[in-house]
């Protein structure tokens, strides 16, 4: 029986690389993101480079609680237990650059958006899928180096990511008796993703690279490989951990 892997945020960046890595392992992969066209293109791109890939794109907004029900119905229609849930869906608030001069309501809206996009997307996916998960399965959530060193603007993005660190410990304790592992991956700067919209300024990119010990940005495939390991039998004894993958970036802005 093939493994069924659910990857949220699978239309771009790390999520797309993760979906490809599981497909290469002949797993059945359910790819989720909001934008249908980009998601379909991602699935086609993976299928073209992984012959025989078993991929199912499903357009859903994972910050909407209703999506849990849709997802459950879809899993029932597939008729397989879920082996792994990899929650890559997340985003940086577009207005994060400015910190000062905003009124409290604006700041509150940004923090709520950051929380919905980076925490609730994971909570809705995980809690919605738990009744359908196979014992011995695995959960991977995506945090960021920002959880350790703060983020730009008023800091809502980094704070939201840090909330996942606490959630994963609760998950690991709850699900340990079922043999389900739960871990967080906290990447540093990974190039070739859509996370930064139109891209980082050259100056900021240079600074981020200079902060690494390896003097280079990470690649989505390198991060996906770590997630793949955590969802493999070889990674089965790793649980309740926050794994940083950042080329040796030091903390502190
Ligand atoms: N790239 C980095 O340097 C970096 C560093 C640290 C942490 N991370 C974290 O790693 C994860 C993956 O980042 P990435 O760089 O691969 O980002 P990305 O290239 O921007 O991809 C984000 C994916 O999430 C989807 N998404 C966003 N909101 C969603 C929602 N509400 N429901 C469903 N899908 C949603 C996007 O598609 P739609 O917009 O169509 O929904 C897209 O497929 C994120 O959690 C990010 O915060 C990334």
From TrEMBL:
Top EC class of this enzyme: oxidoreductase
PROSITE patterns: ADH_SHORT
Range of residues in the leader sequence: none
Enzyme nomenclature, EC number: 1.1.1.100
Entry-linked Pfam families: adh_short_C2
One term of GO molecular function: 3-oxoacyl-[acyl-carrier-protein] reductase (NADPH) activity
Name of this protein: 3-oxoacyl-[acyl-carrier protein] reductase
Source organism of the structure: Streptomyces formicae
């Amino acid at each position: 029986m093939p493994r069924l892997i659910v990857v949220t945020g699978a239309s771009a960046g790390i999520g797309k690389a993760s979906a490809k890595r599981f497909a290469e392992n002949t797993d059945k992969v359910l790819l989720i993101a909001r934008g249908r066209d980009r998601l379909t293109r991602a699935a086609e791109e993976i299928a073209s480079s992984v012959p025989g890939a078993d991929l199912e794109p499903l357009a859903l907004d994972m910050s909407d609680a209703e999506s849990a029900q849709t997802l459950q119905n879809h899993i029932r229609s597939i008729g397989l237990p879920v082996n792994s849930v990899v929650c890559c869906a997340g985003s940086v608030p577009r207005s994060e650059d400015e910190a000062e001069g905003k009124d409290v309501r604006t700041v509150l809206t940004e923090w709520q958006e950051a929380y919905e996009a980076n925490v609730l997307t994971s909570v809705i996916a995980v809690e919605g899928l738990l009744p359908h998960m196979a014992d011995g399965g695995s959960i991977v959530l995506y945090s960021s180096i920002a959880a350790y060193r703060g983020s730009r603007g008023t800091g809502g993005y980094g704070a939201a990511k840090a909330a996942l660190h606490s959630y994963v410990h609760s998950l690991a304790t709850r699900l340990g008796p079922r043999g389900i592992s739960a871990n967080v991956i906290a990447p540093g700067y990974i190039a070739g993703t859509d996370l930064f919209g139109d891209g980082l300024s050259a100056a900021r990119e240079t600074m981020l690279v200079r902060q690494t010990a390896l003097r280079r940005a990470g690649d989505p495939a390198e991060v996906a490989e770590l997630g793949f390991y955590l969802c493999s039998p070889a990674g089965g004894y790793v649980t309740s951990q926050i794994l940083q993958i950042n080329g040796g970036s030091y903390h502190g802005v």
